User: What shape does this take?
Amino acid sequence: MAHRAAPAAAPVSSGKLSSAEIAYVNGTAAAIYRRRAVERATSLVPTNEAGGYGICVRSPAAKGGYDVALVVIARRLYGEPISQVDDDTIVLRRAADTGICRATSMTYVSARAG
Assistant: This one.
């Protein structure tokens, strides 16, 4: 079971991902995009009213551009990823919710589950 910090009092505007968070978001992105190539952001992003900690993921869209999602975890992960039983992650996909993920300043790297 992962050691988890208390939920954030305010959205996080920046911060590097822990190895547990990287593993978790890579697995989540693989489930969202079902075997398609996936990239994840290299840092946390603000989540506005969703609260928690945001991690952007994206995959090439069939008609060009990217299919973008914002994965919101309630608390930072340290150590092993959280179990399915304890998983309270939110995945936002509406354009209004994922605008920050489309910013040209956002840095992405390949996300591989496993």
User: Anything to note?
Assistant: The chain has two helices and seven strands. The helical segments are 19-33, 95-98. The chain has a mean pLDDT of 82.
